[in-house]
Write a structure and sequence with these properties.
The protein has 604 residues and is of the alpha/beta class. Helix content is 34%, strand content 23%. The chain has 3 domains: 244 residues, Glutamine Phosphoribosylpyrophosphate, subunit 1, domain 1; 188 residues, Glucose-6-phosphate isomerase like protein, domain 1 (Rossmann fold, 3-Layer(aba) Sandwich), CATH 3.40.50.10490; 142 residues, Glucose-6-phosphate isomerase like protein, domain 1 (Rossmann fold), CATH 3.40.50.10490. The strands form 4 sheets. The protein has an 8-stranded antiparallel sheet with strand order 3-2-4-1-10-9-11-15, covered by helices on one side. The protein is globular.
């Protein structure tokens, strides 16, 4: 998740920007840059990699008078992590930084190129500064040009722009991506993506709402809402605890990341959906030519997302799909044929076992695809093609939003392939795309359900274990729910297909065994219910997660009624994540750093 900082004042602008970017390192980034407008002259510096590289480049640069400065840490979404793709982006006399995704950038870029504009980067962001300068030629003021530019953008954005035509002004706009402005007694103005860079610099902050845009000067903070009506800022006192600020008021990074899932899934979808089809600009049209099978390979949570994908690929695209545990495939002497697309899944792109299987597939001559969260990672560099999940950095060791975005990507990919293979009708694809658009709302956490889970968690601190059970795609979700509980609570938990209960595991059923039953209304409900009734008859403790009341359940976590089982899937995903979180909290464990575990497993 990219980071933004901005400063308008007379202090050491360079130092303030670099310090602010350092406070945003926790969000994750692969390049960084700053631009400073001082005495009607721009100075801009960019660097790939860590901030120390940017600091080295700017060590001779001095800022000692009134200036407008903007800075950015970039997490690549459009274009590789290079200096040209790093922010800020330059027009003829303006610079811009931007978080988010401009959905209509391709159309805007096409029009600008036709008018003679030269683009230097592969990013969607660069269209903003060129569109602004195009509008500036016919506008009566820079603010008028900026306002028109913002109205022409579609997607999500937090934008800071500086221009020589108004050298003592910073223009801003916010839609979907977080941004705030801070002030102090010295009348300076500070911008950032989160509180952390402003602690120690400001006393009060205003959090922009979606649709807000405007400008700051030395003496003015002008904010306009989406209708163009000027509004007064609503200032709040700024926190003084930097770690707390990074957590945005949540107790743990894992909790914050569960709540972020609505936002990051929106980011995953942005620019990839029309009304009738899925778009993956990063994929060559011939990637699937000659492909008769898809082999998915991963570890841990990514393996569970791959299992979920196997149902969707076969159901939507009618293509044979197999799923492999990477550590097993490496040593199994597998049969790998060139009519197979080999897909690896990894949050970091560095998982050792998965990376080795990718090398095996490449050596065997297979086409390869990686689903990953980190551009320029080892897997992304090695694979023939890659799709970025756009989940942002995930600090909690127990993965949450990485799983959510991986499943979202696989759902889209199954529809992309279904259209190419003509295995779903246009109406069916349109319906699925509409469902995808509803996913961000389905994973929003309500205070009511979180409080219910928190209170329920105290009943599950003892006993000899947990069964998580589900059918179809809810079986991989059961595996993932069990893994989450094991990882952070250290309680024994297993995930099973509901229909497997009678084939052995039911021998463990007694009051000390808790069964977490995933009972979606729209997928095999009666059969799943029958399996749970068998466990109930053996006196197992039943916790039902369902939109339908189950009278044999000891505990019941109600989910909303949806029109499709995939929306139920995503809501139940959040429920099992929160249940694991709250049980772990009750047990006094370190939720973000569970014992014996590492975030990225780069050894066998």
């Amino acid at each position: 998740m990219c980071g933004i900082v901005g400063y308008l004042g007379e202090k050491d602008t360079k130092g303030i920007l670099l310090s602010g970017l350092k406070e945003l390192e926790y969000r994750g980034y692969d390049s960084a840059g700053i631009a400073v407008l001082q005495k009607n002259d721009f100075q801009s510096y960019k660097a790939v990699g860590k901030l120390i590289n940017l600091e080295e480049k700017t060590k001779e640069f001095v800022t000692d008078s009134f200036a407008a400065g903007i800075g950015h840490t970039r997490w690549a979404t459009h274009g590789k992590p290079t200096e040209l793709n790093a922010h800020p982006h330059l027009g003829e006399s303006s610079y811009v930084v931007h978080n988010g995704i401009i959905e209509n950038y391709a159309q805007l870029k096409k029009e600008l190129v036709a008018e003679g504009v030269t683009f230097l980067s592969q990013t969607d962001t660069e269209v903003i500064v060129h569109q602004f300068e195009k509008n500036l030629k016919s506008a009566t003021s820079a603010f008028e040009a900026f306002t028109k530019t913002v109205s022409e953008l579609e997607g999500a954005y937090a934008i800071l722009l500086v221009t020589k035509s108004e050298e003592k002004t910073i223009f801003f706009a916010k839609q979907g991506s977080p941004m705030l402005v801070g002030i102090n007694a010295e009348n300076e103005k500070y911008f950032a993506s989160s509180d952390t860079p402003l602690i120690g610099q400001c006393t009060d902050v205003n959090y922009f709402e979606d649709g807000d845009y405007g400008y700051v000067t030395k003496d003015e903070l002008a904010i306009f809402d989406i209708t163009g009506t000027k509004k007064e800022p609503i200032f709040q006192k700024l926190s003084t605890n930097k770690l707390s600020a990074q957590k945005d008021g949540y107790r743990f990074f894992m909790e914050k990341e569960i709540y972020e899932q609505s936002t990051v899934i929106s980011d995953t979808l942005l620019g990839r959906l029309t009304e009738t089809e899925v778009l993956f600009d990063e994929l060559d049209a011939n990637l699937f030519d000659g492909i008769k099978e898809i082999k998915l390979c991963a570890c841990g949570t990514s393996y569970h997302s791959a299992l979920t994908a196997s149902y969707m690929f076969e159901r939507h695209a009618r293509i044979k799909t197999s799923v492999e545990v990477a550590s097993e495939l490496r040593y199994r002497d597998p049969i790998l044929t060139t009519d197979t697309l080999f897909v690896v899944i990894s949050q970091s792109g560095e998982t050792a076992d998965t990376l080795e299987t990718l090398k095996m597939a490449k050596k065997a001559g297979l086409k390869t695809l990686v689903i990953c969260n980190v551009d320029n990672s080892s897997m992304v560099r090695l694979a023939d093609a890659s799709i970025l999940t756009r989940a942002g950095v995930e600090k909690g060791v127990a993965s949450t939003k990485a799983f959510a975005t991986q499943v979202t990507v696989f759902w889209m990919l199954s529809l992309y392939l279904a259209k190419a293979k003509n295995t779903l009708t246009s109406d069916e694809i349109t319906k699925q795309i509409q469902l995808l658009r509803e996913v961000p709302a389905s994973v929003q956490v309500s205070d009511t359900i979180h409080e219910k889970i928190r209170r329920l968690s105290k009943r599950y601190l003892n006993g000899h274990g947990f069964f998580f059970i589900g059918r179809d795609v809810f079986f991989p979700l059961a595996l993932e729910g069990a893994l989450k509980l094991k990882e952070i609570s250290y309680l024994h938990a297993e995930g099973y297909p509901s229909g497997e209960m009678k084939h052995g595991p039911i021998a463990l059923a007694d009051p000390g065994l808790t069964t977490i039953a995933l009972l979606p209304q729209h997928l095999l409900y009666e059969k799943s219910k029958s399996n749970v009734e068998e466990l109930s008859a053996r006196d197992a403790t039943i916790c039902a997660i369902s939109p339908l009341v189950f009278d044999k359940a000891d505990d019941y976590i109600p989910t909303k009624e949806h029109t499709d089982y995939m929306l139920e899937f995503f809501e139940m995903m959040v429920v099992v994540q929160l249940l694991s979180l709250e049980i772990s909290v009750r047990l006094g464990n370190d939720v973000d750093m569970p014992r014996n575990l590492a975030k990225s497993v780069t050894v066998e």
